[in-house]
Design a protein that fits this description.
There is one protein chain. The chain is mainly beta. The protein has two domains: 3-257, Adenovirus Type 2 Hexon, domain 4 (Distorted Sandwich); 259-445, Adenovirus Type 2 Hexon, domain 4 (Distorted Sandwich), CATH 2.70.9. 14% of the residues lie in helices and 38% in strands. It has helices at residues 104-115, 118-129, 139-147, 192-195, 207-210, 246-253, 353-360, 381-385; strands at 6-14, 23-24, 32-36, 42-58, 67-74, 84-91, 97-102, 163-167, 173-178, 189-191, 198-204, 228-244, 259-272, 276-282, 285-297, 316-323, 326-327, 334-335, 393-396, 404-406, 410-417, 433-448, 452-456. Strands 1, 2, 4, 9, 10 and 12 form a six-stranded antiparallel sheet that branches. Strands 13, 15, 19, 20, 22 and 23 form a six-stranded antiparallel sheet that branches. β6 (84-91) and β7 (97-102) form a beta hairpin. The radius of gyration is 23 Å and the shape is globular. It starts with 5 loop residues before the first strand and ends with a strand.
């Protein structure tokens, strides 16, 4: 944009339109948070952030359970972002949905771990949402971590809290995180006048999907997770907005039907019950750019005794990406190179290198990915089985970011896996897995001033 067209830039602190009593939560307060981002100016999408105070409240109490010596375990890679189960962005005046993402916390667990290294967790993500990632790259470091008296997690015990919310403030733990979605990753200014304003709706997750391992936190050996729930207070949306000069506004308004390209994520859920399973999705988009999926045993979802956002490997042995039964974009199947003779995962020579390479390509060329938590140890079977690993499958559908046509086609993948139960500790017991898939699509927004907006996808 021409800087001469900019009158001034300002940062807005926006309160929810459904304020109620000011408390939000799945079982206490309002179960969703709704923000209106206004209807004038140019929204700087890369600067939209959600801020709030997270409180952990014991049943029957009304204030944050404060004890400086105690903490609440949160996810390894998404921390307090786990409170968000679904987000939707729509046009305020026209009521047209532009993007909706289900299972939002699980998506962020993959995005954060794939695009941030341990040092980036230490430097800013831990301040934003409470998780500090996993910074182990060798088996020796893993052994030292497990043998340490000050370990961040315990594999053979129960504590696996690489993220923690300290309970040392009656107002709760302050969090401030970027809103990750396709629309806000489009790297452009959005004219709020043109789209009729924007509304952000956040649906909150169940308590058992957020609070985990509470019984194993230091000083609370006798506590049970179901005795606690979370609350969100003082939520606000921080957004950067550019005001245009009158001349720039007049020039823009002279176009009666402006258009805008933007990105969006589509989300899907499948239950995998067979060791040879095909997952297909009707994306209904003419430009599907990339996709990624993560997995977890179905019994671990919404479970106080497990991390609901853990990224676990169902022991995939073969993987093929498909479009209408044809191999797309890879013309070959990916096979894990795990040694079947070696029963101790510590001694596996490598970890699914081709699968991880293409998984990283979901966010651009892997060669350009200078920072990531993905590595042969943290993405190994042992790490994912013990819930502190980061792993998934994915691919890029083309290198020019024009995407493949998914308007009428079925797009997905076929996997052959063992579906091993990580709690069984053997090589035979199986359990169903849940697969969460996310597709990045390119769309066009067409505005008819005074009449409405249409999404062409």
């Amino acid at each position: 944009m021409d800087s001469s067209a900019i009158l001034q830039k300002r940062y807005l602190s926006i309160n929810p339109v459904n304020s109620g009593e000011g408390v939000y939560g799945y079982s206490s307060g309002l179960p969703q948070i709704i923000f209106n981002l206004g209807s004038s100016g140019l929204l700087q999408t890369e600067e939209v952030r959600l801020s709030f105070n997270l409180r952990i409240v014991e049943t029957g109490q009304t204030t944050n359970n404060v004890d400086p010596a105690k903490q609440i375990s949160v996810g390894f890679f998404n921390g307090a972002e786990s409170v968000m189960d679904e987000i939707e962005i729509s046009s305020t005046n026209y009521g047209r949905s532009l993007e909706r993402i289900d299972h939002y916390a699980r998506m962020n667990a993959s995005v954060n771990s794939a695009l941030h290294s341990k040092s980036q967790y230490d430097s800013h993500l831990t301040h934003e949402q409470g998780s500090i990632g996993v910074g182990i790259t060798t088996s020796q470091q893993l052994k030292e971590e497990l043998d340490s008296d000050a370990q961040h997690f315990i594999v053979n015990g129960t504590v696996k809290n690489q993220g923690a919310v300290l309970r040392n403030n009656v107002e709760g733990r302050e969090c401030s995180m970027r809103v990750v979605c396709g629309l806000f990753l489009s790297q452009q200014h959005i004219s709020l006048d043109d789209v009729g304003g924007l509304t952000l709706r956040i649906k909150l997750a169940p308590n058992e999907a957020v609070i985990s391992d509470i019984a194993s936190i230091t000083g609370e050996a006798a506590a049970t997770p179901s005795d606690f729930h979370y609350e969100i207070v003082n939520p606000r949306l921080i957004a950067g907005c550019v005001l245009e000069t009158p001349a720039a506004v007049q020039q823009r308004m002279a176009n009666p039907t402006p258009t805008m390209n933007f990105l969006s994520y589509s989300s899907f859920y499948n239950n995998i019950i067979s060791t040879d399973f095909q997952v297909l999705h009707k994306i209904n988009a003419s430009a599907v750019i990339s996709s990624f999926s993560n997995f977890i045993p179905s019994k671990n979802l919404n479970n106080y005794n497990a991390f609901s956002d853990a990224q676990m490997n169902p022991n995939i042995q073969e993987l093929t990406f498909q479009k209408d039964g044809q191999r797309v974009p890879l013309q070959y199947e990916l096979r894990s190179d795990q040694d079947r003779v070696l029963t101790d995962d510590d001694f596996q020579p490598t970890t699914f290198p081709a699968m991880l390479y293409h998984y990283l390509s979901s966010w651009g060329a892997p060669a350009d990915r200078m920072k990531s938590s993905i590595n042969p140890l943290i993405s190994a079977i042992r790490a994912t089985n013990d819930e502190y690993g980061c792993w998934g499958i994915g691919c890029s559908y083309d290198t020019e970011h024009q995407g493949i046509n998914g308007k009428v086609a079925n797009i997905g993948f076929q996997i052959k896996s063992k579906l091993l139960d990580p709690d069984a500790g053997d090589n035979t017991t199986q359990t169903p897995y849940s697969a969460f898939s996310y597709y990045l699509c390119k769309n066009e927004l067409v505005v008819n001033r005074g009449q409405g907006v249409a999404v062409v996808n």
